[in-house]
Amino acid sequence: MKLSTMSTVLFRRKTFEGGAHLESKMKRCLTVLDVMFIAIGHMIGAGIYVLTGSVVRNQAGPAIILSFIFSGFAALLSAFSYAEFGARFPRAGSAYTYSYVGLGEIWAFVVGWTVPLEYMIGNAAVARSWSAYFDNLVQKRVANWTLETVGQLSDGKGFFAHYPDFLAFFLLILVAIAVAMGSKFSANVNTSFVVLNLAVLAFVIICGLSYADFSLWSGTYPDGRSKFFPYGFGGAISGASTCFFAFIGFEALATAGEEAKNPHRTIPLATFSSLAIISVIYLLMGASLTLMVPYDEVDAEAAFAAAFQARGANVAMIIMSIGALAGMLNNLVTGSFALPRAVYAMADDGLIFGWFGVINSRTKTPLNATIVFTILNALLALIFDLQALVDFLSIGTLLAYSMVSVCVLILRHQQELKDGSNTEYDNGGTLKSWVPFRRYWQTPGMSIRVAVVMLIFGYVCLALPFKTGIISNFGGIILLIIGAIFALSGFFFILGHEQNKSEASYKVPFVPFVPSLGLLINVFMMVFLNAMTWIRLFVWLAIGVVIYLFYGVRHSKEGLRSGNTAVVTELQNGIDNRKASK
């Protein structure tokens, strides 16, 4: 098969004609407040009740404050890109749709295939944490009953949970039933929980800080470790990589783009408002926890409730536990809302089984996708350990956010039709006169892609010495030099391209600086994730690529619409012939 044939199929990009991208089979009924609260609701549960205790105990200690600052800043940089794409292309797929428009079909599939997994793992982790908080309130009666009646799954030290969590399993089923009843109904439920939870969090912050012991932050331990940095500065960076999942809320927000009343205005406003509110809450909650109890005494599963209990504040512990249950239920509502919509977007484009793209005529929701992926989600919560789930949370989010930043760099430096013209293009993507070897870059759009690849390769080389601890060794210095050369060359090559004159209700400021900086931070955090996280991701992607090659390639609506059916057939025949030869 010709390389050009494969490239035509794998890198074809999604296009929208005129204003057609505003049309939707789903109901546009969500206001700015509805969409903003979807993001806040999704971020509160994961960031505070699931991640905080685990990151404090195992990765960062009190330096979780810096972890939240780093990940929040990275999220802000990514939020600029999400806001522009959400205003331009208000569709349910969010990062998947944006990658389809900017990078091509295969990259869109990679992003689209990881996002549902991220939601499933996030929902499962929150459901297990909800179960742990509830069990803590009833003196472990649920755990004891399950162990006595059903028995244990494992010793609790591996990937599988100590016992099957039936409470988490049925909780996810019930939440999905509520979400399947319709977008406006689930938005109203979510808004009620958000208001309640914000009130509880305000109480918890004030009460927690009243027990503040600043000696837990200052000085050193007998072994010489800093009390604020018990895991070193690298621990704060590693914690930021995990905490980044806490900011997946505006990914969930973007999936609501197809149901927002005025998405061009709603998505940017809701994105920045929710991010500002949640960042302040994370910092205050992280500070109150680490000032109440030593980091190594934090309960990884029910951190705040156990901290108040240790301080003898039983009333505050009960209020906190009730708030935690409400907050995590809030998170499950938004996560269960976003999950089937991420699947629906891919199915609607023909890249995965079309049955998932069916919209129910009564509820106007993707009911088939809701049913199947809720069952998968509930099974994850039933048998897997909370810590194992938390370790895998952030990689899909970081990958999606990185792709969106890359898409901004590419789309802002490609040709666009001039206003009022169907044939004449502006100078977007052309090289400026000072760029050397300009005549060797004749293929439209190729040079900007080369520049972005150089930039990413440079970032990886810069991050590796910090991750491996060889920054002062000869090999580390060589990597830093190579990384600096590629990163700077790639960045200045991007600067050497003209930007197009496309119009949008919101555009990322200071391009290419903002998306390039956001991409740098995301790449660093991805490099700091552990090896098993990457292995699990590649296994999941391998499954997805098989589905794409044997189903998505043939059924892609973009391929059929663009008239390259023959090219698709040739690609599929090549796959079938190789399979037969084996």
UniProtKB/TrEMBL annotation:
Pfam families xref list: AA_permease_2, AA_permease_C
Keyword ATP-binding: no
NCBIfam families: 2A0303 (TIGR00906)
Tagged with keyword Transmembrane helix: yes
Name of the protein in its database record: AA_permease_C domain-containing protein
Residue ranges crossing the lipid bilayer per the database entry: 30-51, 63-83, 95-115, 160-181, 193-212, 232-254, 266-293, 313-333, 367-386, 392-411, 448-468, 474-496, 508-528, 534-553
Domain Cationic amino acid transporter C-terminal: 506-556
Principal place of residence: membrane
Family under the similarity heading: Belongs to the amino acid-polyamine-organocation (APC) superfamily. Cationic amino acid transporter (CAT) (TC 2.A.3.3) family.
Catalysed reaction, written as an equation: L-lysine(in) = L-lysine(out); L-arginine(in) = L-arginine(out); L-ornithine(in) = L-ornithine(out)
Gene Ontology CC, one term: plasma membrane
Topology class, membrane: Multi-pass membrane protein
Compartments, record wording: Cell membrane
InterPro entries in the record: AA/rel_permease1 (IPR002293), Cat_AA_permease (IPR004755), CAT_C (IPR029485)
Signal peptide boundaries: none
Listed GO MF terms: L-arginine transmembrane transporter activity
